[in-house]
Amino acid sequence: MSNQSPAPRFQFSLRWLLISVAVVALLLGLGSFPIGQGLLGLLLAIMLRGLLPTVAIVSAIYGRGDVKAFAIGAAVCSIPVLTSDIGPMNFAGLLLATISQLIAMGLCGFVAMATRRWLARHGLGSWK
After folding, report:
1. Is 47:79 a contact under the CB 8 Å cutoff?
2. pLDDT value of residue 71
3. DSSP code string of 92-125
4. pLDDT score, position 91
5. How far is 62 from 41, CA to CA, in rounded Å?
6. Global pTM value
7. Helices (DSSP H) in the chain: which residue ranges?
8. What is the DSSP letter of 85?
9. Residue 91 contacts residue 48 (beta carbons within 8 Å)
């Protein structure tokens, strides 16, 4: 019998917990001022138009298997956001757009991954 090491446990440090709580409190505090809402809206717009599609495209290029299929579905879902003008939006509109984009990317990625698994199960893919 071989000696197996125990499964890794989730460990956290109080330092990072304090830092994350402080950052969340600062962001929520900024949201109560008009200038802060503009700043948070800018961060949400950057995340919506730059960060999310970049992660999806890089994962589609360098991922393998289900990760690649999920990323391709998510990247295809982000095309309308990249090709259209979101126009002037307030903080609530950008927050809603970001959340809806995350949900849509997740659903499209899941459908792409399920389709890949179905094709592999039925022997219709080129990766047999």
Report:
1. no
2. 92
3. HHHHHHHHHHHHHHHHHHHHHHHHHHHHHHTT-S
4. 73
5. 31
6. 0.66
7. 14-30, 34-46, 52-62, 66-77, 79-83, 91-121
8. -
9. no
Give whole-number Cα distances, 82 to 38, 50, 52, in Å: 21, 8, 11
Q: Which amino acid is at 64?
A: R
CA dist 44 and 77 (Å) reads 18
Q: pLDDT in tens for each of the 128 residues of the chain? A: 556 666 666 677 888 889 989 988 887 887 778 777 777 777 877 877 888 888 889 989 998 989 999 999 999 988 887 777 766 677 777 778 888 888 999 999 999 999 999 988 888 766 55
- What span, in angstroms and rounded, lies between the C-alpha atoms of 103 and 90? 20
CB 72 within 8 A of CB 55: no
- Residue identified by tokens 């893919």 is 125
Residue 51 neighbours by CB under 8 Å, 6+ apart: none
Angle between helices 52-62 and 91-121 (to 10 degrees): 20
Q: What angle do CA 88, 89, 95 make, to 5 degrees?
A: 150
